[in-house]
Design brief:
The chain is an alpha/beta fold. It has a single domain, classed as Alpha-Beta Barrel (TIM Barrel). The protein has six helices and four strands; from the N terminus they run H-E-H-E-H-E-H-H-E-H. A four-stranded parallel beta sheet has the order 1-2-3-4, with helices on one face. The chain is elongated. The termini are far apart.
């Protein structure tokens, strides 16, 4: 269904955006989009999201093959309710997994209102400790 109905419209929009001089074209679709990852890479968007429920390895393969930046989100529930130490460990693990992927981005998904600031800062610290720019 995605291939038949949504992909052509998305490709058309991305191509139009390029003609307008837009260079950064993220395609941010949450949830487990692993089954359609190869189709999402065909949209022409140059920054794709592997949400926390997606398969990191499959997404990494697709992004490498298509030369796309790869964004990996951490579970917003973990960010909201976990300890800064737990969150830091997960972020550090994901950053290590993505270190060899061109354009890797560590993401947070939509962080719920009321999430402790220390929890978000734990992700930032993991990025800084890994030598990433934030």
């Amino acid at each position: 269904m995605y291939e038949e109905f949504v992909l052509p419209v998305t490709q058309e929009f991305v191509n139009w955006a390029r003609t307008q001089g837009v260079r950064d074209l993220p395609l941010i679709i949450g949830g487990n989009t692993t089954p359609i990852a190869p189709l999402l890479a065909q949209t022409g968007a140059n920054n794709l999201l592997c949400d926390f429920t997606g398969d990191f390895d499959e997404w990494a393969s697709v992004c490498r093959e298509h030369g796309r930046a790869f964004r990996r989100n951490i579970s917003p529930r973990l960010i909201e309710t976990g300890s800064p130490e737990e969150i830091y460990a997960v972020a550090a693990r994901e950053i290590a997994r993505g270190k060899d992927l061109p354009g890797f981005i560590m993401g947070t998904a939509v962080v719920p209102f009321g999430t402790p600031t220390a929890n978000v800062l734990a992700i930032k610290q993991a990025c800084l400790d890994a030598g990433a720019s934030v």
